[in-house]
Amino acid sequence: MSEDYLIDHERRVKRAIALMVAFTLAAIFSTLLPLFGSLRPPNEALGSWWQRAGAPITVFAFLAQNKANLLGALLTPGTFTSAPFEALRRKYRLFHSYGFRISIFLTVLGTLVWGYGDVLINSLMAASMVIAK
Hints:
Helix content is 81%, strand content 0%. By secondary structure, the protein is mostly helical. The protein has a single domain (3-132), classed as Methane Monooxygenase Hydroxylase, Chain G, domain 1.
């Protein structure tokens, strides 16, 4: 493998990692954003407002998972490989592993929030009222 190929390949790997991290952070930010009351419309209940956050969480997590899959493809050669390429794989394989796991977790979390977010928030609010008494 030529030196230029590895430099270009590592650039593509770094771009995939950057996009995966950006989409993961956007999914996490989408989870927390609806909990700030200043952004909620005045007539909207907190439970249904947080439930709406499930859609962007799921979309951003899906995009992060897509980039994790791309990273896995970039780090998995189709044939025998060279020592420099193996060094590249070792250098970035944990990014792939953790990024893939986190993105799957966020996808499931987003789906649950999207479907049952209002039930969860309403249950937590009811439980806090009982504890407060």
